[in-house]
Amino acid sequence: MFVLVRHAHARAKRQWTGPDDERPLSRRGQDQSRDLVRLLAGLGVTRLVSSPALRCRQTLQPASEELWVPVEPTPTLATDARAEDLLRLLSAPDVGGAALCTHGETLRLLSEAWEPVWRATTGTSAPDVSGTLKGGCWVVENYGTAGATARFAGRSTRLSWL
């Protein structure tokens, strides 16, 4: 089992003058990241892997503090990720129990990339995670096997009006 997380709400791109990878969470995003703690703890998450972008690391930070697990940044989850690297990460044995925090662009790429893999192993279409709202989570179980499943696990209600 692993959990795909789209980072929480960040400060607006238009108003941010620094590098995009250093754009932090907004106050709403900080609240969302705290809301994620219960969900991730309840799912039994034991590892936190993140895009190097600050907003992704900040999304997992409250869970890191609660679970006593460090946030591990990896370029594989960055906005310029390569599809083959994403698929390799999801197939790695040590991804079990991990929450993987990434970007909307990366989830779109993943949706396209894992379709043939998912179809070949399960005989069904892969879940479309491309439209996941900020702070949203998908629980993926038995990835790469005939019994693979993915279910939307929710998101913070703090963005219900977006």
Task: Provide a descriptive summary of the structure in words.
The protein contains 4 helices and 6 strands; from the N terminus they run E-H-E-H-E-H-E-H-E-E. It is globular, with a radius of gyration of 15 Å. The protein has one domain (2-10, 20-154): Phosphoglycerate mutase-like (Rossmann fold, 3-Layer(aba) Sandwich), CATH 3.40.50. Strand 5 (137-141) and strand 6 form a beta hairpin. Helix content is 36%, strand content 17%. The protein has a 6-stranded mixed beta sheet. The chain has 162 residues and is of the alpha/beta class.
Short description:
With 162 residues, the chain is α/β, with parallel strands linked by helices. It is built from four helices and six strands; from the N terminus they run E-H-E-H-E-H-E-H-E-E.
List the helices and strands and how they pair.
Elements: E1 2-6, H1 27-42, E2 47-50, H2 54-67, E3 71-73, H3 83-91, E4 98-102, H4 104-122, E5 137-141, E6 149-154
Parallel strand pairs: 1-4, 2-3, 2-4
Antiparallel strand pairs: 1-5, 5-6
Helix pairs in contact: 1-2, 3-4
Rough outline: globular
Helix share, percent:
25-40%
Rg (CA only): 15 Å
CATH topology: Rossmann fold
How many separate domains?
1
Classify the oligomer: single chain
Structure summary, number of beta strands: 6
Number of DSSP helices? Answer: 4
Secondary-structure element order, N to C: EHEHEHEHEE
What share of residues are in beta strands?
15-25%
CATH architecture: 3-Layer(aba) Sandwich
Reading side by side through the largest sheet, how are the strands ordered? 3-2-4-1-5-6
Using the coordinates above, name the CATH class: Alpha Beta
| Main sheet summary | 6 strands, mixed
